[in-house]
UniProtKB/TrEMBL annotation:
This is Catalase. It comes from Henriciella marina. One of its GO terms (molecular function) is catalase activity. InterPro entries: Catalase, Catalase_AS, Catalase_clade2, Catalase_clade2_helical, Catalase_core, Catalase_haem_BS, Catalase_immune_responsive, Catalase_large_C. Belongs to the catalase family. HPII subfamily.
C-alpha cells in the first residue's frame, strides 16, 4: 500500500494511519505517529528544550542535510519524462534494441545552462545542455549533448581551465552566469581551437526562446555496431519539430529580471497543457573512408560535418510528455554518464569524449554521495540489473543469498548471475597502435575555416547579432590585450566581422593572429547553421500577449483568442489590474497578468486591443509604455486597434508604425495572423 505521498507503507494493521479528519498521519522517519508538529518539547511552557524530543531533532537534522553539491557545470537544469520512438529499422547499422523499428523507449531529458549556479537566470547567454537518458531494454544509454554541435576545446585536459575561466573569478566570486569578463576571453583568446565555438556562442543559439525551440547534438563522433560486429561512425542530432527560435539580446537581459524561470516555466506549461514538445532524432552516418577524405578530423569536437556533406537521416522521435513529480528526486539526482552505452553503440577516440567517460562517473560519486547512485529510481535501469557489486553508502539492494562472488558452485538457483558472451556488451575491437604521447594531432590544427563558414552561413541580421554580441562581451573586458587578441583572431575569421567589432569597441584593428594552419576560404555555406533559415512554419506553441483595459472590444479579443486556439498557440491577457477588465459588450475578462508582471518581452507577439479610455489609463503607467516600446524595439508583430493611439503616442512609437503593425479593427486581422509564424519583423533592426 502507498500513502497519498507515495511513501510505501506496510499495511500490517497499524492502528493510526489516518487522523480524525481523514489526513494521512504524519510520522517520524521511523514511522512513529507525531502528535505535535507546531511546538518542540520544553521543560515548562517557557523553558529550555529537552533532548528527549526525537521528532524535533530528526526534523531539523534532516533539513540541515537537504542540500547536495550542485553540479560543477550545468548546475541549473530542468527536466521531463518522455519516450523515444524508433521509426526506422536500423539493424544494418546497430544491434541496439532502442533502434528497432517501432520500439518505444522511456526517456528522461534534462536541459541546462552551463556556467551559472543553480539559482542563476534561465536566459543567460550560455550553451544549453541537452541530456537524455534512454531506459532501454538492454540497459541505460545516456546521450549527454548540448544545443551546439561543437565545443570549445579539443582535449579533455583543458576542461577545468575552460570552466574556471568562465565561472566567477576566484578572488571576487563574480560575475555570475556570464562570459562577458576578462578571465573568459583571456582563456578563449589564448585558445584558438575555440574560435568555431565562439561563433556559435556569440550567435543567438545561446539565447534560445525556449528549450522547445532549440536543436540538440551529441557533438562527438560515436560508433554504431551491428550484430555482425561492423562499425559505422555516427553523429547524433535532435531537431525540434517546433522549429528554431531565439530571443534577442535586449530581450534576454529583461526576461532574466521579469521571469528568471522563463525556460523552465515554458517547458512546464507546454507539457501541462498537453502541447508536448517533440524532436526528431537524426543520424549522420559515415565510414572510415569518408573520415579519411573529410577536410577535418572527425575526432575533433571543435568541428562539424556539414549536413550538406553527410545528410542527417531522421530515424525517430523524442516526445516529452510528463513533468517530474519531485524536482530534487528526479531532476537534481539524475546522473548522466557518457560511459552509459548499450550493445550496438560505442565510442570513438575523440579525446574529449574519452576524458568525459572518466569525469561523469567520478562526479556523480561526489554529488550523490557514494557508488550506489544507480539505486536511485531516476538512475536505475528499467530492465533486470543483477551483479555482485555490494554495500557502500545507501545500498538499497544487495545481492540476495549466500553467493556474492563468481565463479561459484551454488548453481543457477542460488549462484547469482553470470556473464553472457553471446549477448553481453562488446567493445568494438578497433586496432590501435602508436607511441604513448601527450600531443595534439596535426589534423586538429585548422581553427578558423569552420568559424568562417558558420559566419558566412548566417543571414545579415544574424551576422549583425554576432558582431554585436562580441562587441558587448569584449566591452566588458577591461584588459586591452584581451580585446586586441580577440580582434586578431576575428581577422582570421572574417574581415567584416573584425571591422564591425573593432568599430563597436572604438579600436584599431591589430595584426591577424598567427594561424597554426592556413584558413580555407572555400567551405560551402550551410543553411542548416542559421536559426532564421530554420524557423517555424506556424505559430504553434507560441504565446500572444493581449493588452486590454476597460472598454476593449470584446469581438476582437475573442477573435484573437479563437485564432490562437486554432493555431495551437497560447494567449495571455494583460490588463492594468489582475482582476481583469470590463469589455465593450459589458462582459468581464480575467487577466493572466497585471501589466507590471506581464511585459511584452514574455510574448512572441502582442496585440493592443484598447479603447481610447483604456489606452489613456495605460498611458499613465510606465510598464504599459515599456510594453509598447519594447515590442517595437524587439521587432515583434503588433496587432492594434484605433483606440490604442494615446498609448502609442506617449510610448513614442506613433510615427514609427510599419507594416509589422496591423490594424485589427480595420481589416488587418488576417495579415496579422499570417505574419505571426515569421516571429519578427527583422528589418525593424531588432
Ligand atoms: Fe560535460 N560535464 N564535460 N559536456 N556535460 C558535466 O557531469 C565534462 C562536455 C554536458 O543534465 C558534469 O553530472 C568534461 C561536452 C551536459 O546532469 C561533469 C568535459 C558536452 C551536462 C562534466 C565536458 C557536455 C554535463 C557536471 C570535457 C556536450 C549536464 C555534472 C571533456 C557534448 C548533464 C555532471 C545533466 C555535465 C564533465 C564537456 C554536456 C563534471 C570533463 C563536449 C549536458 O562530469
Amino acid at each position: 500500500m502507498t500513502t497519498k505521498n507515495d511513501l510505501p507503507i506496510d499495511d500490517n494493521g497499524a492502528p493510526h494511519q489516518t487522523t480524525e479528519e481523514g489526513y494521512d498521519t504524519l510520522t517520524t522517519q521511523h514511522g512513529v505517529a507525531v502528535s505535535d508538529d507546531q511546538n518542540h518539547l520544553k521543560a515548562g511552557e517557557r523553558g529550555p528544550m529537552l533532548m528527549d524530543d526525537f521528532h524535533f531533532r530528526e526534523k531539523i537534522f534532516h533539513f540541515d542535510h537537504e542540500r547536495i553539491p550542485e553540479r560543477v557545470v550545468h548546475a541549473r537544469g530542468f527536466a521531463a519524462h518522455g519516450f523515444f520512438e524508433c521509426l526506422e529499422d536500423l539493424s544494418d547499422l546497430t544491434r541496439a534494441a532502442v533502434f528497432k523499428k517501432g520500439e518505444k523507449t522511456p526517456t528522461f531529458t534534462r536541459f541546462s545552462t552551463v556556467a551559472g549556479n543553480k539559482g542563476s537566470p534561465d536566459v543567460a547567454r550560455d550553451v544549453r545542455g541537452f541530456a537524455t537518458k534512454f531506459y532501454t531494454k538492454e540497459g541505460n544509454w545516456d546521450l549527454v549533448g548540448n544545443n551546439i554541435p561543437v565545443f570549445f576545446i579539443q582535449d579533455a585536459i583543458k576542461f577545468p581551465d575552460l570552466i574556471h575561466a568562465a565561472k566567477p573569478a576566484p578572488d571576487r566570486g563574480f560575475p555570475q552566469a556570464q562570459t562577458a569578463h576578462d578571465n573568459f576571453w583571456d582563456f578563449i583568446s589564448l585558445s584558438p581551437e575555440s574560435m568555431n565555438m565562439v561563433m556559435w556562442i556569440m550567435s543567438d543559439r545561446t539565447i534560445p526562446r525556449s528549450f522547445r525551440f532549440m536543436e540538440g547534438f551529441g557533438v562527438h563522433t560515436f560508433r554504431l555496431i551491428n550484430a555482425e560486429g561492423k562499425s559505422t561512425f555516427v553523429k547524433f542530432h535532435w531537431k525540434p519539430k517546433q522549429g528554431l527560435q531565439s530571443v534577442v539580446w535586449n530581450e534576454a537581459l529583461k526576461i532574466n529580471g521579469a521571469d528568471p524561470d522563463f525556460h523552465r516555466r515554458d517547458l512546464w506549461d507546454a507539457i501541462q497543457t498537453g502541447d508536448y514538445p517533440e524532436w526528431e532524432l537524426g543520424l549522420q552516418v559515415f565510414d572510415e573512408e569518408f573520415a579519411e577524405k573529410f577536410d577535418f578530423d572527425v575526432l575533433d569536437a571543435t568541428k562539424i560535418i556539414p549536413e550538406e556533406e553527410v545528410p542527417v537521416r531522421i530515424v525517430g522521435r523524442l516526445v516529452l510528455d510528463k513533468v517530474v513529480d519531485n524536482f530534487f528526486a528526479e531532476t537534481e539526482q539524475v546522473a548522466f554518464c557518457t560511459n552509459n552505452v548499450v550493445p550496438g553503440i560505442g565510442f570513438s577516440n575523440d579525446p574529449l569524449l574519452q576524458g568525459r567517460n572518466f569525469s561523469y562517473l567520478d562526479t556523480q560519486v561526489k554529488r550523490l554521495g557514494g557508488p550506489n547512485f544507480t539505486h536511485i529510481p531516476i538512475n536505475a535501469p528499467q530492465c533486470p540489473m543483477r551483479n555482485f557489486q555490494q554495500d557502500g553508502h545507501m545500498a538499497m539492494h544487495n545481492p540476495k543469498g549466500r553467493a556474492n562472488y563468481e565463479p561459484n558452485s551454488w548453481g543457477t538457483e542460488e549462484g547469482g548471475p553470470r556473464e553472457d558472451p553471446a549477448n553481453g556488451y562488446r567493445h568494438y575491437p578497433e586496432e590501435v597502435s602508436g607511441q604513448k604521447v601527450a600531443t595534439r594531432s596535426e589534423t586538429f590544427a585548422d581553427h578558423y575555416s569552420q568559424a568562417r563558414q558558420f559566419y558566412l552561413s548566417q543571414t545579415d541580421i544574424e551576422q549583425t547579432h554576432i558582431a554585436n554580441a562580441l562587441t558587448f562581451e569584449l566591452s566588458k573586458c577591461q584588459e586591452m590585450r584581451v580585446r586586441k587578441r580577440m580582434l586578431s583572431h576575428l581577422r582570421n575569421i572574417h574581415e567584416d566581422l573584425a571591422e564591425a567589432v573593432a568599430d563597436g569597441l572604438g579600436l584599431e584593428l591589430p595584426e591577424p593572429a598567427k594561424a597554426a594552419r592556413e584558413t580555407k576560404t572555400d567551405l560551402k555555406v550551410s543553411d542548416a547553421l542559421s536559426i532564421i533559415k530554420n524557423g517555424p512554419k506556424n505559430f504553434k506553441g507560441r504565446k500572444l500577449g493581449i493588452l486590454v483595459a476597460d472598454g476593449s472590444d470584446a469581438g476582437t479579443v475573442k477573435a484573437l483568442q479563437d485564432a490562437m486556439e486554432e493555431a495551437g498557440a497560447l494567449t495571455v491577457v494583460v490588463a492594468p489590474k489582475v482582476g481583469g477588465a470590463k469589455l465593450s459588450d459589458g462582459s468581464h475578462i480575467e487577466a493572466g497578468e497585471k501589466i507590471d508582471g506581464g511585459p511584452s518581452i514574455l510574448y512572441d507577439a502582442v496585440a493592443l486591443v484598447l479603447s481610447e479610455e483604456g489606452a489613456n489609463t495605460l498611458a499613465d503607467l510606465p510598464p504599459a509604455r515599456d510594453f509598447v516600446t519594447d515590442a517595437m524595439a524587439h521587432g515583434k508583430f503588433i496587432g492594434l486597434t484605433e483606440g490604442a493611439e494615446p498609448l502609442l503616442k506617449v510610448a513614442g512609437v506613433m510615427g514609427k508604425l510599419d507594416d509589422g503593425c496591423f490594424r485589427l479593427d480595420d481589416g488587418g486581422m488576417d495579415g496579422f495572423l499570417e505574419a505571426l509564424p515569421k516571429l519578427r519583423k527583422w528589418d525593424r533592426d531588432a
